[in-house]
């Protein structure tokens, strides 16, 4: 009833002989290249089908999990780039001070400023003020008077803080002033906002002062409001008026006040040190009032 085929050994021997014949033919005759190309085309759909699950898995992993990782890495790299750029801003200041105070630099403490990355999320609608809204607040360690910089120079300072956002007064606003010094010679002066986004004015500059166009102005560190050595502006115009004791000096802000999206908040407070400090302060004030009564 059942026809018995060739044994397994004969099948194996036949396959081996066929393989040897094909190998010899491929080695000796070039027409086997056409046969190989036809067979390759015929097998290609099968190869695609076998590789399809792997491709789908790779595509899904790249689209979903790797995308989040890339976004996180991109945000981290942006923060690191801003920090490095902010630190590099001090190189010109350090070189000039090294020439002036070579003996004292060895005893000077190194800069240890800390940074908090923030993003501008809104602008003030008032045309007579220059303020921006940043997505960092009291819960992140932001406080009033905190200095704010971008990748090129001083942006301004924090003037109001809420739990999750803060309002930054830009250096060009008429209500903003910052103590600066000329990086070339150390001459100190006050830079005041002019109301124009691209101009600062220097207050009470003596007519005989050594100041000229192109001089770099950096924060002097006086009053401990702005850390020392951050670029602020570049002198753009010096006008001497006969008979007047002070020269008229204007400077161009180095920070991109209208275009910067990411900013650095300098030296944020450690919010983990004294949580609920405002509540504790309120309790202490209440106890003092009760004792006085």
Structure explained in plain terms:
The chain is α+β, with helices and mostly antiparallel strands. It has two domains: 33-63, no CATH class; 76-266, Rod shape-determining protein MreC, domain 1 (Thrombin, subunit H). 35% of the residues lie in helices and 25% in strands. The chain has helices spanning 8-28, 32-63, 65-88, 91-100, 277-292; strands at 115-123, 131-134, 147-149, 154-161, 166-170, 177-182, 188-193, 200-206, 216-219, 231-239, 246-253, 262-266. It has a six-stranded antiparallel β-barrel. Strands 6-7-8-11-10-9 form a six-stranded antiparallel beta barrel. The longest helix has 32 residues, at 32-63. The termini are far apart. Residues 273-293 have low confidence and may be disordered.
Which word captures the global form?
Answer: elongated
Q: How many distinct beta strands?
A: 12
- The percent range for strand residues is 25-35%
Question: Structural class per helix/strand content?
Answer: alpha+beta
Q: Which percent range fits the helix content?
A: 25-40%
From the structure provided, what is the oligomeric state, counting identical versus distinct chains? single chain
Contiguous low-pLDDT stretches (5 residues minimum) are: 273-293
The CATH architecture of the largest domain comes to: Beta Barrel
Report the CATH topology name of the largest domain: Thrombin, subunit H
Strand order of the largest sheet: 1-2-5-4-3-12
Report the top-level CATH class of the largest domain.
Mainly Beta
Radius of gyration: 35 Å
Q: Quick check: average pLDDT? A: 80
**Individual helix count:** 5
